[in-house]
Structures are given as structure tokens and as C-alpha cells.
């Protein structure tokens, strides 16, 4: 015999997550509730800054129950050269360490100390993901690949798996990132990686491929990369540009290498082999990736 509780549960299962959340919260607060959130591993990140502090914890618990998160964090800014979260506020729960599984790799990290960008999911896959990503990360028998901004192993672990005969040098300036990079390399049975906790500009090792997975002033690292590349070496270049500077007005424009970008890279002694948009980054702004060959 069907009970009232079982009927309520069935109705709840048919409701969308935000509908389930609003059904448990005073209607006078509905207009203040965030309709979007991020779930990274088993931790939710959302913005309750416009909710009275007395209500935040109770509302955060409701979000946690509905989206299946053990912890809810207040959305905050990522800033500084080390790209660290600012002033992490825990709204529900107490654990900020989580684990993400992506394209066969398990990443552990502390979201109170280290950033994670869900929007980059396909682009972290290297040789294990979509064809357009594989095209960027296909290299001709590299002996040495250096990741200048390795973080917790976002890209370097996949490259180590994809090129088991190559030596992967993973460099990061953030000690906390390097702590989790070492743990993630071990947990994913990576044996061809050397990890260095330092500013990449202090490292002058030669490489066939240099990965620049950084956002903000990546172009400032191209001269050092050029000096450290072997003949015909490759740089994988990530950066953010305004769409109008790139000359792109619509989605259909993204099939070509922008003339301004190509000229800029030529001035840095690189030829652009491939160019693609990774994701929308902000108003009229895009995160791009380019495959550059040393001139």
C-alpha cells in the first residue's frame, strides 16, 4: 500500500533540483536563491551572499541535501599569481577536501586552498578525450614535456599517461598544489613524472613540449618557453582574450586562426598551428587554446 511519504517522495523525484529546493524554503526568499551552482566532487559552491546570515546555514543544508553534497561553500573570487580562492566560507559541513574523477584520472584537492574549473573538463583530457582536444595534445615522439603551471596535475597527469616513454616535468609555485600533485601522481600510478616546487622562470630545462595552462598574463612566459624549447618545439598556450580583439563577432567566426593573434605570436617567434575556443569566460571574452611551433 502506498503511503503519503512514498507519494511525496515520488513527486519530489519528478521535480527539478531548484524546484525541490524552493519547496523547502519560505517563498519570500525565493527571489534571492541562486538557480545555478557548481558541484565539484561532493562539494557544492554557490552564492548566498544576499541571504541574511541567520538563514544561510539552513538554506545551505537544503541545497546540500538536494544536490547530494557533503559541504557547501560560499562562492568566492580566485585571485593572485597562485590562483587561490579568497577567504573560503563554509556554509554547511566541515570538509573541504574532495576527489574528482575525469577521463580515467582521479584528482584529490582542497577547494579551500586550490581552484578547480569545471568548464575545462574536456580540455584536461589530452589524448583521452574528444578528437579536437586530442589534435592539440598529439606530439611527435616527445622525450621531454614540461608543464609550467602544473597545479594538482590538471594536464600533466594525462600527458604522463598519454606519453609513457616521455619524461614529464611538472612545475608549480604553490606548495599546497604540489602537495596534491604528488599525491595525485601516486594515486594514478604515474612513474614518469618529476615534480618541482618553484617558479617556472627559474627552471631552464630543455623540452620538446611546454604546456602553459595559465590565465592572465601567459604571454609573459613565452620568451622563457622559447629559450627552453628544443628545435621545432611546441607550446600549448592557454589565455583569455576579448572577442572583438580576436575579430570574432559570431560563433561561425571561430573556425579560423585570428590574424591579430597570429601576428602577435609571430612577434614572439612562434607559428600558430591550431587555435580553438575553450569556453566563454565573461562578457565578450573567451578562454582560448593555441598550439604554437617554435620558429
Number of strands: 15
The mean pLDDT is 91
Number of domains: 2
Give the strand order, joined by hyphens, for the main sheet. 11-10-9-12-13-15-14
Number of helices: 9
N-to-C terminal Cα separation, in Å?
Answer: 76 Å
The CATH class of the largest domain, by name, is: Alpha Beta
Radius of gyration: 22 Å
What composes the largest sheet? 7 strands, mixed
Please, what is the CATH homologous superfamily of the largest domain? Vaccinia Virus protein VP39
Secondary structure class reads alpha/beta
- The run of helices and strands is HHEEHEEEEEEHEHEHEEHEHHEE
Proportion of beta-strand residues: 25-35%
User: Which architecture of the largest domain would the CATH scheme give at its second level?
Assistant: 3-Layer(aba) Sandwich
The dominant shape is globular
Stated plainly, the CATH topology of the largest domain is called: Rossmann fold
Helical fraction: 25-40%
Would you give an account of this structure?
The protein has 295 residues and is of the alpha/beta class. The protein folds into 2 domains: 4-95, Met-10+ protein-like domains (GMP Synthetase, Chain A, domain 3); 117-294, Rossmann fold. The protein contains 9 helices and 15 strands. The protein has helices at residues 4-14, 17-22, 53-67, 131-136, 156-162, 175-187, 222-228, 243-246, 259-267, and strands spanning 38-40, 43-46, 71-74, 78-79, 84-85, 90-92, 97-102, 105-110, 144-147, 167-172, 193-197, 207-212, 229-242, 270-282, 285-294. The strands form 4 sheets. The protein has a 7-stranded mixed sheet. A 4-stranded mixed sheet has the order 1-2-3-6. A two-stranded antiparallel sheet has the order 4-5. The chain is globular. The model has no long low-confidence stretch (mean pLDDT 91).
Amino acid at each position: 500500500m502506498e503511503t503519503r511519504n512514498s507519494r511525496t517522495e515520488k513527486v519530489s523525484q519528478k521535480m527539478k533540483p531548484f524546484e525541490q529546493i524552493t519547496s523547502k524554503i519560505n517563498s519570500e526568499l525565493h527571489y534571492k536563491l541562486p538557480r545555478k551552482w557548481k558541484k565539484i566532487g561532493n562539494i557544492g559552491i554557490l552564492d548566498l551572499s544576499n541571504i541574511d546570515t541567520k538563514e544561510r546555514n539552513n538554506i545551505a543544508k537544503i541545497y546540500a541535501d538536494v544536490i547530494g553534497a557533503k559541504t557547501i561553500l560560499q562562492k568566492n573570487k580566485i585571485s593572485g599569481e597562485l590562483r587561490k580562492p579568497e577567504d573560503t566560507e563554509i556554509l554547511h559541513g566541515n570538509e573541504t577536501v574532495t576527489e574528482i574523477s575525469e577521463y580515467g584520472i582521479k584528482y584529490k584537492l582542497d577547494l579551500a586552498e586550490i581552484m578547480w574549473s569545471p568548464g575545462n573538463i574536456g580540455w584536461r583530457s589530452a589524448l583521452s578525450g574528444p578528437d579536437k582536444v586530442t589534435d592539440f595534445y598529439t606530439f611527435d615522439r616527445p622525450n621531454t614535456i614540461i608543464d609550467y603551471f602544473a597545479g594538482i596535475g590538471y594536464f600533466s597527469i594525462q600527458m604522463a599517461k598519454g606519453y609513457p616513454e616521455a619524461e614529464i616535468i611538472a612545475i608549480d609555485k604553490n606548495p599546497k598544489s604540489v602537495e596534491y600533485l604528488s599525491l595525485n601522481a601516486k594515486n594514478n600510478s604515474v612513474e614518469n613524472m618529476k615534480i618541482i616546487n618553484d617558479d617556472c622562470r627559474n627552471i631552464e630545462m630543455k623540452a620538446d613540449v611546454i604546456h602553459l595552462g595559465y590565465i592572465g598574463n601567459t604571454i609573459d612566459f613565452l620568451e622563457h618557453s622559447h629559450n627552453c624549447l628544443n628545435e621545432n618545439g611546441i607550446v600549448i598556450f592557454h589565455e583569455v582574450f576579448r572577442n572583438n580583439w580576436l575579430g570574432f563577432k559570431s560563433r561561425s567566426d571561430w573556425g579560423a586562426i585570428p590574424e591579430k593573434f597570429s601576428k602577435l605570436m609571430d612577434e614572439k617567434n612562434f607559428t600558430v598551428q591550431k587555435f580553438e575556443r575553450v569556453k566563454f569566460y565573461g562578457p565578450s571574452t573567451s578562454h582560448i587554446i593555441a598550439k604554437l611551433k617554435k620558429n
